[in-house]
Amino acid sequence: xxxxxxxxxxxxxxxxxxxxxxxxxxxxxxxxxxxxxxxxxxxxxxxxxxxxxxxxxxxxxxxxxxxxxxxxxxxxxxxxxxxxxxxxxxxxxxxxxxxxxxxxxxxxxxxxxxxxxxxxxxxxxxxxxxxxxxxxxxxxxxxxxxxxxxxxxxxxxxxxxxxxxxxxxxxxxxxxxxxxxxxxxxxxxxxxxxxxxxxxxxxxxxxxxxxxxxxxxxxxxxxxxxxxxxxxxxxxxxxxxxxxxxxxxxxxxxxxxxxxxxxxxxxxxxxxxxxxxxxxxxxxxxxxxxxxxxxxxxxxxxxxxxxxxxxxxxxxxxxxxxxxxxxxxxxxxxxxxxxxxxxxxxxxxxxxxxxxxxxxxxxxxxxxxxxxxxxxxxxxxxxxxxxxxxxxxxxxxxxxxxxxxxxxxxxxxxxxxxxxxxxxxxx
Length: 427
Prior knowledge:
The protein is α+β, with helices and mostly antiparallel strands. It has 10 helices and 18 strands. Helix content is 39%, strand content 23%. The protein is elongated and about 90 Å long. The chain starts with a helix and ends in a 5-residue tail after the last strand. About 1% of the residues have low confidence.
């Protein structure tokens, strides 16, 4: 059961690691700040990204000499991931502190084909270690999680250090490999059980005091085990029922939380994030930009003559215009950008890793897309155009950055609408 839990933990972590890597590193040429952001998001101590041939594209801690080196032939878990199979590594010492770590390598799709991301972790600092401390029910008990060569990287045995080899007297060497469950008694009288962790080269071993396994075979000792067995069976059945009920309630809670998230963070008319959500994303993006020193630009977008559309065709046409523009904004931006409805007929878009020149390219594309697509609604047709103000972040607070974009927007309006203007950089 403990081995199955470890398998589930590993599988869930593979899925999370692949999801984050695909979201942040799938562009044609991800930057080092994108790579560092991914390492931070998954909490890795060290990491490497490979191309489809196994050559290193980026590495953490930073080492320029490694870039371009083929690493898949040097590490089995990287070679397996390059071949399309998520794989956990054996134990290796970390490059920074020399602590025993294991790596999780996953392939993921990108604009340049399959890539591999591998993050390394000290398992002792994860929730998995806390689970293993309490996995065995016999007391006193000892739990060991080892790699294929018997190196321990997580244990509750104070006499065995992480990174050391499993003591030879625990199990014969030929019984410490494979996925088969192995049980037996040790010369010390302890009882031991060992099993492989499917999908990894790891093995889980538990040791307990053998005197706790068997009690008296006479008197009440013959009845008590049966009573315990009946109680255990009843408890197991009750546990199944409770788990099933808990699962149903968890699904329902997830649905309610998703609905609540939509109500709190999404503008119901356009389907874009609302001002509260965009504010939050802007604060996060600025914090990351300040830490990793990459550019950020914002677009303040306003529908030209929106009041005229409302007055001439009615508010239903105005609502249709808002949805029309929201659709084009979503189509003009990347997955990593953060657009949202700001107020009335204004929208704000946060563009991480984009300077003012790049933001002008986006604004021009958005202007042309909206102006070339007339709005048709309720039998009426009208042209819709946008004025856009651009501001590149200069290290100021978010409200000042938005103020500069707003001022640039008014410049675009004054210059004739259906255009963009860029805020003057403050020296």
